[in-house]
């Protein structure tokens, strides 16, 4: 019985560390000291290292969890999306939910451990796969211009990432860029790619 209580405590401590790291990384970036995470989580500094021997391991664990969550979300979105417009609306909703963390991720990804970069690449690959399958159908129907799919995808991602990375130009510090500009970004993008003769 004592072992199971101790195991539950360890799991709860680990969960608290991960949740706190997510919050702090979202607010301050991935270069924060482990002491800040320990203090905010209300755990001893050594507890962090008993669960995650290095900060890189904590970052990789957190990004893997994030990657799984967003991957599941994107798979679900793709199942119910019948048009590129609906898929991109759903993509914006998912980004808004994780906006602060995702923005930090795209801003600081080059400074992250390789394994974390791989998780970022996996997230983009999942999105690209679903985007491709939906956009191919629309190109065949003639509702979207027959342009290279990778360029259509990268244009969308570039547009969204530009607004996220330059939030200070577009929104107040506590305001969501996606909430404020998402509808407009989607409308502009669709106007660029839609085949006027079929709309």
From TrEMBL:
Give residue ranges for domain HTH tetR-type: 11-70
Taxonomy, superkingdom = Bacteria
Give the SUPFAM superfamilies listed for this entry. Answer: Homeodomain-like
Instruction: Please give one Gene Ontology molecular function term for this protein.
Output: DNA binding
Q: Does the keyword DNA-binding apply?
A: yes
Please tell me whether the keyword DNA-binding is annotated for this protein.
yes
Give TM segment ranges. none
Entry's Pfam families? Answer: TetR_N
Alphabetized, the UniProt keywords read: DNA-binding
**Which stretches are labeled DNA-binding?**
33-52
- What protein name does the entry list? TetR family transcriptional regulator
- Protein's organism: Defluviitalea raffinosedens
């Amino acid at each position: 019985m004592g072992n199971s209580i101790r195991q539950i405590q360890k799991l709860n401590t680990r969960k608290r560390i991960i949740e706190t790291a997510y919050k702090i990384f979202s607010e301050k970036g991935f270069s924060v000291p482990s002491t800040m995470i320990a203090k905010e989580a209300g755990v001893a500094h050594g507890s962090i290292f008993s669960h995650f021997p290095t900060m890189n391991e904590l970052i990789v664990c957190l990004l893997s969890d994030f990657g799984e969550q967003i991957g599941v979300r994107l798979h679900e979105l793709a199942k119910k999306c019948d048009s590129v417009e609906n898929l991109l609306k759903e993509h914006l909703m998912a980004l808004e939910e994780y906006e602060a963390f995702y923005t930090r991720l795209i801003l600081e990804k080059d400074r992250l451990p390789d394994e974390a970069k791989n998780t970022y690449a996996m997230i983009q690959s999942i999105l690209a796969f679903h985007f491709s399958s939906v956009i191919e159908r629309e190109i065949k129907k003639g509702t979207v211009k027959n342009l290279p799919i990778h360029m259509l995808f990268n244009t969308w991602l570039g547009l969204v990432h530009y607004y996220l990375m330059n939030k200070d130009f577009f929104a107040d510090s506590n305001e969501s860029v996606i909430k404020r500009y998402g509808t407009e970004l989607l409308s502009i993008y669709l106007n660029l790619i839609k085949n006027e003769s079929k709309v």
